[in-house]
Design a protein that fits this description.
Radius of gyration: 30 Å
Low-confidence stretches: 1-54
Number of helices: 25
Structural class: mainly alpha
Strand content: under 5%
Oligomer: single chain
Helix content: 55-70%
Mean pLDDT: 86
Distance between the termini: 89 Å
Strand order of the largest sheet: 1-2
Order of helices and strands: HEEHHHHHHHHHHHHHHHHHHHHHHHH
């Protein structure tokens, strides 16, 4: 590669912008780009502080002023400039993308170079080691990966990113930083590009749903998934709903699915949960799930189970269950007079037992509804 036409930084500024770009560029005026090349390849040097090997461009990129200066050079949109910078930073592209200041150069470089150099970057980041994963869980690298996803969204090279992320799907979904890279894919890319991530979500759904951080990511994933894979995932959750509903964290995935208000899926869930409503009402997370069922089309199934149970008095006197029964009374009064009357009759049988503890809440509400 011939850089003779580029010359020094100063001449770059003269050739491509006609002036100095900013005060910070003064310190780099006259620095020779070409002297460190041999047969078109950069020669790298160790930094004075003993850091990773570098050349002058890498050194600049790792400083605030230097990064700004290089960004201004790239803004010329001249391929000779972008290709020259690419050649000087390529060997340390991962270090660049996770650096506090270097990441800005990386993010601009990937939208400045051609497809061939983009492919070189992707191979560098994925073939020998999964740098995409390591950058995704890094506080600065995370931004670089998200920018990469946007830059490649219409390119076949996006498959490099998707494969790298899918290989570490569960680790990313349970990482407080990495999860946002997965969600960025769902927000930016189409369902076809994301298909491998959809498959991994179905494969890892059970474990993620039981993880205190994974369940949050899984709910966000469910809210974003598109296309036929959505129905597959929802039906898989239905198949496992009795287990998930009784799990302290998995319960929230069931709540998320019910909140989508898919009539067929919800009817299946409400049916499969029959026989568990009394038990769930007396669990912290479970009580929220049962209240959600009561507010939707599962109301009759829940109240019918209450009416037919000899455990209702324990639900009424429970710290969580009493709120469920209050919701049952309020919702049935608004929506179904017949089942409301049946629940009132059932509660009247044990009204004397509700003078103390949480039962008093039901007794008070009971009287106000009459």
């Amino acid at each position: 590669m011939d850089f003779s036409g580029i010359g020094s930084f100063g001449s770059c500024l003269d050739d491509f912008s006609g002036k100095y770009m900013s005060p910070c560029s003064c310190m780099y005026h006259g620095v020779d780009w070409s002297n460190d090349f041999s047969n078109g390849n950069p020669r790298f040097y160790a930094t004075s502080d003993g850091g990773y090997p570098s050349n002058i461009v890498i050194t600049m990129a790792m400083t605030e002023d230097g990064s700004k200066f290089l960004l201004e050079l790239l803004s010329s949109k001249d391929s000779r400039v972008s290709n020259l910078i690419f050649s000087r930073v390529f060997e340390f592209i991962f270090e660049l993308m996770i650096h506090q200041f270097g990441r800005y150069l990386f993010q601009q470089l990937i939208v400045s170079v051609d497809e061939i150099r983009l492919q070189m970057i992707m191979e560098k980041l994925t073939v020998a080691e999964n740098h995409i994963y390591h950058a995704s869980v890094h506080k600065y690298g995370n931004f670089s990966v998200k920018k990469l996803i946007t830059a490649l969204k219409r390119s076949p090279l996006i498959t490099y990113v998707i494969k790298a992320l899918s290989n570490k799907f569960e680790e990313l979904m349970t990482d407080p930083t990495g999860q946002y890279v997965i969600l960025e894919c769902l927000d930016v890319l189409d369902s076809r590009s994301n298909d491998l991530l959809y498959v991994r979500a179905m494969e890892g759904c059970l474990e993620l749903s039981r993880h205190v951080r994974g369940v949050v990511s899984m709910n966000a994933f469910i809210a974003r998934i598109k296309g036929p894979r959505l129905d597959q995932l929802l039906n898989w959750i239905c198949d496992n709903v009795r287990f998930l509903a009784q799990d302290p964290t998995g319960n929230y995935v069931v709540q998320c699915v019910i909140g989508l208000e898919n009539p067929a899926i919800n009817d299946r869930i409400f049916s499969l949960l029959e026989g568990l409503y009394v038990k769930l009402s007396m669990a912290k997370a479970g009580s929220h799930l049962v209240e959600q069922c009561l507010r939707l089309s599962g109301m009759k199934r829940v109240i019918s189970e209450f009416i037919g149970s000899d455990q209702l008095v324990f639900v009424v006197k429970d710290r969580y269950g009493n709120y469920v029964v209050q919701t049952a009374l309020k919702e049935s009064k608004k929506r179904d007079a017949r089942i409301h009357a049946s629940l009132i009759v059932k509660l009247e049988e044990r009204l004397d037992c509700l003078r103390h503890g949480y039962g008093r809440n039901i007794r008070t509400l009971f009287k106000s509804l009459q």
